[in-house]
Amino acid sequence: YYYSDQFWWFIFTQVDINHNGKIDKNEFKEYMNKYIGVISRKDIEKVFKYCDRDNNGTIEYEEFKKYMLCE
Predict the structure, then answer these.
(1) Which of 20, 18, 41, 21 is nearest to 29 (CA)?
(2) How much is the pLDDT for 1?
(3) Cβ contact 48:59 at 8 Å
């Protein structure tokens, strides 16, 4: 399936609760717990280890999109 950049941006902004252009671990946990289900700290660390390619502790939009597209 092909999803537009607009689609991925919309999803990103739903997780980026404070709308600062970055997803931190607390935002990710809050979103997951509310909409998907309880996620462990260990699983959050795994996601961030894979997604946070510049290792700054947050996931920016391009990192998010690459993760979602399995790039």
Answers:
(1) 41
(2) 59
(3) yes
User: What pLDDT was estimated at residue 38?
Assistant: 92
Q: Which of 66, 58, 45, 56 is nearest to 15 (CA)?
A: 58
50 contacts: CB under 8 Å, gap ≥ 6 = 67
pTM equals 0.88
Q: What is the set of domains in the chain, with CATH numbers?
A: 5-68 (1.10.238.10)
The residues pairing with 59 across neighbouring beta strands, listed in sequence order, are 23
Tell me the CA end-to-end span of the chain in Å, nearest whole number.
15
Q: Are the CB atoms for 63 and 54 separated by under 8 Å?
A: yes
